[in-house]
Design a protein that fits this description.
Layout (H helix, E strand, L loop, with lengths): L1 E6 L9 E7 L6 E2 L4 E6 L4 E5 L4 E6 L6 E3 L3 E7 L1 H5 L4 E2 L36 H10 L17 H12 L53 E2 L1 H9 L11 E3 L2 E4 L1 H20 L22 H16 L2 E9 L1 H16 L7 H14 L5 E4 L4 E4 L5 E3 L1 E3 L2 E3 L2 E2 L7 H16 L13 E5 L18 E5 L3 E7 L2 E15 L5 H16 L8
Parallel strand pairs: 10-12, 16-20, 20-21
Antiparallel strand pairs: 1-8, 1-9, 2-4, 2-7, 3-6, 4-5, 6-8, 11-12, 13-23, 14-15, 16-19, 17-18, 21-23, 22-23
Length: about 525
């Protein structure tokens, strides 16, 4: 056995460091390759750091709350000598060890495209979303070829590997419609449609099975699930798991809630028999507390300040009669439900925005200050602002102009749910060309939203409800939607903002026009 160092890997484009939020394993604990060992909060998301080895952790080189630069040593492992030779730096023990004959395989033996997969044990760089896709498709990450040695593996790389194994039966395009989930949560309807939950999936493809908790010493779970269990004062090892990942028990948030209810019921019976139990309270920030301005919250603040003080904002407010849209959605809902899709108003808004951007290209743009050029984008990648415990997250719907209403609905629901529990990949929140935010979800009507810099515009949707409306000299009740638009006045004139808003209104007021898009 030899000791080897494991450095904090590159967890996303432009990420230079991360704050260590929580250790998921302890010193002297044995872990397997790809097992999450720590939660790290970058300036963009909360990510799990998977182990690169099958071995024992002999030293944790950072404490919770520390900021760790990418490339710094995170932990020291004790692993088999052969595994250490193929990967990271070996840490010599106090006593000298015998030297080994050099192997013919180079230290960086990542598989090149065209080579046979499955021969490399080198550390694999892949975000959590890609690792989840690999599990769902049954593809070992060690069998996936990255574009270049040391590159991060993408979902497309995983699908290509799965296609080779399955005989071209796995779709390569990331834009193809996702499989409909078997269960969807209905948490009410708001214009953004981001209240839908994401149905859990089993990576094994087998029917859900229940793992007994007794005697279990290792349990897999997402960071949000671990936080939920911690908040409820529960141990993951005590909770029966309804799924498995790589043959290991995998606890979902639903498992935690079910176990919590059962535990509460048992406690209630105990209390009724005369046994008192102290009340439990959830500790949160209290008046007088000083909350660290770090991680995602700090990054959001810095980006807001950059946008506000770099791009001179101008706002435009309007209101649209969406009575026909409400009726159209009501007619389509049964068909959407039959396809296990929750159809909200947000997909309609996305389609209307894309139509407006095509009509006014200056808003689907950004200013390249270094080269003094206005860049008109030829893609329509729409960001959807989602509120999370850590602050505002903006997952991006790539190529929204190429997707239908139900496909948009599924993707928005899925990405919004993963943005809330912070399991979404960093690459899924990059590359946006325009953003939609929903202030109506909390009852708001109008706003002056801050642009998601370097984009040129952002649209805020207010609360959709019945309001008085003047029509043919009479006051009637109509379903209306307030909308607010902010643009970068350096590259977008007020007239262009108004023209864009009018185009969005036209499509929302006449939803049958969306069939043409």
């Amino acid at each position: 056995m030899v000791r080897t160092e494991f450095e904090l890997p590159d967890v996303g484009e432009g990420v230079a460091e991360g704050e260590l939020v929580a250790w998921l394993v302890g010193t002297d604990e044995h872990v397997v390759e790809d097992q999450p060992i720590a939660e790290v909060e970058t300036d963009k998301a909360l990510v799990e750091i998977p182990s690169a080895y099958d071995g024992v952790i002999v030293e944790r080189c950072a404490q919770e709350g520390d900021t760790v630069p990418v490339g710094d040593v995170l932990v020291v492992f004790e692993v088999d000598e052969g595994a250490a030779e193929a990967t990271d730096t070996v840490v010599p023990d106090e006593e000298p060890e015998e030297t080994t004959e050099p192997t013919e395989r180079p230290q960086s033996d990542r598989i090149e495209r065209g080579d046979e997969p499955g021969v490399s044990d080198e550390r694999v760089f892949a975000p959590p979303s890609v690792r989840n896709a690999a599990r769902e498709l049954g593809v070992p990450l060690s069998a996936v070829a990255a574009p270049e040695p040391g590159d991060r593996i993408t979902e497309r790389d995983v699908r290509e590997a799965a296609r080779r194994d399955a005989g071209d039966t796995v779709p390569l395009s990331d834009s193809e419609p996702p499989e409909p989930a078997t269960e969807r949560e209905s948490n009410g309807t708001t214009p953004d449609g981001t209240t839908s939950g994401r149905a859990p999936s089993s990576s094994t493809g087998n029917a859900p099975i229940s793992f007994e908790a007794a005697g279990r010493d290792r349990t897999l779970a997402m960071p949000a699930t671990r936080r939920l269990a911690s908040e409820k004062g529960l141990s993951l090892d005590d909770i029966p798991a309804s799924e498995q990942r790589d043959g290991e028990p995998f606890v979902t948030p639903a498992d935690v809630r079910t176990y919590s209810r059962d535990d509460a019921s048992a406690s209630s019976v105990s209390d009724s028999s005369g046994t008192d139990s102290p009340p439990t309270t959830e500790e949160g920030p209290r008046p007088g507390d000083r909350i660290p301005y770090t991680g995602v919250r700090r990054t959001i603040g810095e980006k807001m300040a950059t946008s506000k003080y770099t791009a001179p904002h101008v706002s435009h407010h309007d209101e649209v009669d969406v009575s026909e849209l409400v009726e159209a959605r009501s007619r389509l809902k049964p068909e959407a439900q039959a396809r296990e899709t929750k159809l909200t108003y947000m997909p309609f808004a996305v389609k209307a925005v894309v139509a407006g951007l095509k009509e006014v290209p200056a808003i689907n743009a950004e200013l390249d200050e270094e080269n003094e050029e206005i860049v008109l984008h030829d893609e329509y990648n729409i960001g959807i602002a989602v509120a999370s415990d850590a602050g505002l997250m903006v997952p991006v719907i790539d190529n929204a102009d190429q997707k239908g209403l139900l496909e948009l609905a599924d993707e928005i629901s899925d990405k919004a749910a993963r943005a809330r529990d912070r399991s979404i990949g960093l690459e899924e929140m990059q590359g946006g060309t325009f953003t939609i935010t929903n202030v109506g979800a909390v009852g708001g009507e109008y706003a002056s939203p801050i642009i998601n810099h370097p984009e040129a515009g952002i649209l805020a949707l207010g609360s959709l409800k019945e309001r008085p409306w003047a029509e043919d000299g009479e006051i009637v009740a109509r379903e209306t939607l307030p909308i607010s638009m902010s643009v970068d006045h350096r590259i977008v004139d007020g007239a262009e903002a108004a023209r864009f808003t009018n185009e969005v209104k036209r499509y929302l007021n006449n939803p049958e026009l969306l069939l043409l898009e």
